[in-house]
Write a structure and sequence with these properties.
Elements: H1 8-17, H2 22-28, H3 34-46, H4 50-62, H5 84-100, H6 104-111, H7 116-124, H8 131-141, H9 145-149
Helix pairs in contact: 1-3, 2-3, 5-7, 6-7
Length: about 160
């Protein structure tokens, strides 16, 4: 996308006018830092008339949304657990919490987890445990670390 005959600032302005998002501009103009691009985009948008702004917005709406422009978040439905081992530990935590009849928040407070979101990620296999965290989980559940890591049997799978 780079064009040596126009300035980098002009390249940023052209991309803004074509409806590019900041993240896409950062990718298209690697010679500039993200902070510089942010400043240039802000200046360009500030100088637009309401009619020009509508035109830019229309072009943005017509462009396909790139993963970079989505903020890097993976939609929940597209997430996969980190590994079978992570999932195994998560299922065991879930089963233990389920048997205790506690909500995520209650279980997190009772068993010393920092928050319910982390606990939820652990249960779903999305959280990458450190060894010390795995030891803390085992203590909270009153089991050996090896028990958390054992292969699943039919009776341990969450329903």
């Amino acid at each position: 996308m780079e064009n040596p005959t126009i300035s980098l600032r002009q390249q940023v302005e052209n991309l803004v006018m074509e409806g590019f998002q900041r993240a896409e501009i950062v990718e298209a103009v690697p010679a500039l830092s993200p902070n510089t691009i942010h400043s240039y985009v802000k200046e360009v948008l500030k100088g637009l008339t309401p009619e020009q702004r509508r035109g830019v917005q229309t072009k943005r709406d017509e462009r396909p949304i790139s993963p970079k422009a989505q903020g890097g978040q993976t939609p929940f439905k597209d997430k996969t657990y980190l590994s079978l081992l992570h999932r195994r530990v998560g299922i065991r935590i879930y089963n233990h919490r389920n048997k205790s009849g506690l909500s995520l928040t209650e279980y997190a407070k009772t068993h010393g987890f920092s928050n319910r979101v982390r606990l939820s990620h652990m249960e779903q296999g999305f959280y990458d445990f450190s060894l010390s965290e795995l030891i803390e989980v085992a203590k909270a559940m009153q089991v050996e670390v090896a028990t958390l890591l054992e292969p699943m049997t039919e009776g341990t799978i969450a329903k």
